[in-house]
Amino acid sequence: MESVIQEKGNLSIHTENIFPIIKKFLYSDHEIFLRELVSNAVDATQKIKKLASYGEFNGELGDLKVVVKLDKEAKTITISDNGIGMTADEIKKYINQIAFSGATEFVEKYKDKGEDGKGDKGIIGHFGLGFYSAYMVAENVEIITKSYKEDTEAVRWQCDGSTEFELSAAEKAERGSDIILHIAADSEEFLDEHRLRGILEKYGKFLPVEIEFEDKVINNPSPIWTKNPSDLSDEDYLAFYKELYPFSEDPLFWIHLNVDYPFNLTGVLYFPKLKNDFQGQREKIQLYSRQVFITDEVKDIVPDFLQLLHGVIDSPDIPLNVSRSYLQADGNVKKINGYITRKVADKLSEIFKNDREGFEKKFDDIGLFVKYGIISDDKFYEKAKDFCLLKNTDGQFFTFEEYREHIRENQTDKNDTQIFLYTTDENKQDAFIQSAKKRSYDVLILNSVIDSHFINALEQKLEKISIKRVDADTLDKLVEKDVKLESILSSDDQEKVKKVFEEVAGSKSAHVQVEAMPVDELPVVITFPEFMRRMTDMQASSGQRSMFGDMPLMYTVSLNSNHPVISRILQTEGEEDQKSLAKQVYDLALLSQGLLTGNDLTKFIQRTVTSL
């Protein structure tokens, strides 16, 4: 039997100030100590299981779990496992030599073992610094450990945070390790049962070994992302979603990620029902490394638009900084980023092809996400252009190519450009929509928070199209044809009626013009230039102040010279009576654009009631 000699010595480190560095700088959040120590205990447990599977340990495995105990009176936290334990020599090697990782050596030794040739699968530790995170909260740390190896003695190691340690024989009947933290006065917040449970549930909710705290197992060691998709039902995926997001609506559908080359990656991504305020949907994807929670800030590993998804990604190949607290950019991150984008696009394409009707029913919920992807990611666009849908005011859905064919005959202008007409508000812009429909024009609904950006993206990506809001100009100018209508008014009459309306408008922002339109069009049409509307919408969607500031937007007042009401104004005797009638017609036009407010709206209502 190996004999433990009473021993004192100095830790083998290359800086005298290692503990202040660990305590103040290595880990940004002191609660990480519990993640690191519990992860180490899980490692030790996983190692004994692997050794047993390799035939290098033939004893009883017993009930393999990690136990965390809190003793408020003694001011201690103890993390216990019945894993492989350590001998005195192993303590000297793995504990006294800071930054020598036992996990790294174990992986190297057994990397070619096992059926899959991946002896490292399930081993968490990498850097060998995790144990020393204990000194962020403890003034003194003890290790009482007994190796799984036969004829070895239990060992006690103790260090008060200086570079000196003590190593001596100990009493311990079973294999495994107890890490006892004597909590420092400035860290007594961690001597709280609810605080510790919260930390364990945050970082260890899906650790692969049972974690027991206060006589209860607090984790799910076999989350669904570790299982074969063919073994799972829809109910399993929905139940797991509720486990992650207890108060959320059911997701629309999900993607199970499972790849082992050229990197290891597993996970489940869910498509939630998106709201227009999609900023609040972010930071719902959780990043794990070998089932240890790392972060919910996944902006490097997941493309920006995919951060609207919910779920879990787990990869041992994601490069982490030494404290395992955040990502470090490298080639693998880009590969994983691209893989996730491709998988999401493929899933959407599959649903579209296999169940178009079901896809259309979901599109109101996922359209925001798909459009965001098209705006921000060219690779996603290449696939999404075949399943992104446009919806018109009749509730019909079209792919881009289907829509181009749908409007080709009627909405192609004299320059052979197809004109996509759209509305942002079917109720407010109803008069304009109805005018368009009289000419058999189709009108799309583009009313989401990012549609102003989506419109710009489509114009850049689709050849020979122009997208215009249905109230951005008169229809003859929105879809310009070679054929022009003749005006029934003479040039003199056109000039007269123009002056009447200029006086009625009384604004330098209003540009009044007379235009020959069909007789059944509106008598007066008020429009804003498309570029001005779009710029204003884009800035509003980004939370920016309008580039036009407090200046009134320029708008065009188009008088339909062929409408009977315009002729009637000209035929009305008396300048004041002409203006009164023109004012009523003008106010109606303002009302249709939502521009008649306050006292002007009150006066308009009073005049209308009086005339009745």
Automatic annotation (TrEMBL):
Keyword list, A-Z: ATP-binding, Chaperone, Cytoplasm, Nucleotide-binding, Stress response
Pfam families per the UniProt record, alphabetical: HATPase_c_3 (PF13589), HSP90 (PF00183)
GO molecular function, one term: ATP-dependent protein folding chaperone
Domain Histidine kinase/HSP90-like ATPase: 29-173
UniProt-listed CDD domains: HATPase_Hsp90-like
Protein family according to the UniProt entry: Belongs to the heat shock protein 90 family.
Protein name: Chaperone protein HtpG
Protein encoded by which gene: htpG
